[in-house]
Amino acid sequence: MFASYLIGLREGLEAALVVSVLVAFLVKSGRKDRLPHVWGGVGAAVVLSVAFGALLTFTAARLDYTGQELFEAITSLLAVVFVTWMIFWMRRAARALSKELRGRLSEALELGWVAVVVMAFLTVAREGLETALLFFASVQGATATAQPLIGISLGLVTAVLIGWGIYRSTVTINLTRFFTWTGILLILVAAGIFKYAVHDFQEAGVLPGLSTYAFDISAVLPADSWYAALLTGMFNITPQPSVAEVVAWAAYLVPTLFLFLRPQRVKPTPAPASA
């Protein structure tokens, strides 16, 4: 549930911030007549995201065992790619995001209401599709289906409330620190998803070594304990992983965390030309 909550909170807050920037720009520029078009685009993006998640679930349920394992492995890899790209993109572009969105919306307003709907739709749909794919990949192998759904729902509700509070200037949050800490947690989640993808490839017979275990800590991490369920659900840490799973987990986690935590280079401001 906590991993799903984190996904819903992080992705939902990004979408909520985008929508709040668009709404605030229209309100301050006296173009409230375009607000229904923005909300129409947002609603269409939400419907598309839910439909995409349902399609992933429906497709996986209709495949045989080998096909299902391959499908889940491929979607897990795609989720890792998208979430990694999203984390680094947000880290780099967060400061200029508001200005960029206002510029796009200004151009859309000049083109007409259809452009406003499309602009809002595309902006939110990207976050929604990433959320659906990441959520689908993160809950593979979950024994209870209700808890992940509850977790992501609570995360999205929290994100909407925070976004509304920021828009109304009633909530102050250090977004840089928020995206840094949630980025670290999502990297850990993505490492677990990557590990699970390798396990699925082994289950499907694409990769060898399914029974070649790296270690066995079942005595320390019993499967029926609450902390084992927490570690498995959050970071996909299992008591008896294969060597390939451990190598994949470390090969993703170590360099990705290093690059993410490395201080960003600040471009020097050019000196003004002398008169």
Q: What is the helix tally?
A: 8
Low-confidence segments: none
**β-strand amount:** under 5%
SSE succession: HHHHHHHH
Largest sheet: none
Radius of gyration: 21 Å
Mean pLDDT: 80
Total domains:
1
Distance between the termini: 62 Å
- Percent of residues in helical segments? over 70%
The computed structural class is mainly alpha
What coarse outline follows from CA principal-axis ratios? elongated
| Overall number of strands | 0
Verbal overview:
The protein is an all-alpha fold. It has one domain (2-261). Helices cover 75% and strands 0% of the residues. It has helices at 2-28, 35-61, 65-111, 113-138, 146-167, 175-203, 226-235, 243-261. The mean pLDDT is 80. InterPro entries: FTR1/Fip1/EfeU. Pfam families: FTR1. Belongs to the oxidase-dependent Fe transporter (OFeT) (TC 9.A.10.1) family. It comes from Nonomuraea insulae.
Topology, pairings included?
Blueprint lengths: L1 H27 L6 H27 L3 H47 L1 H26 L7 H22 L7 H29 L22 H10 L7 H19 L14
Short summary of the structure?
The protein has helices spanning 2-28, 35-61, 65-111, 113-138, 146-167, 175-203, 226-235, 243-261. With 275 residues, it is an all-alpha fold.
Features:
275 residues, mainly alpha, 75% helix, elongated, transmembrane helix, Iron uptake transporter permease EfeU, FTR1/Fip1/EfeU
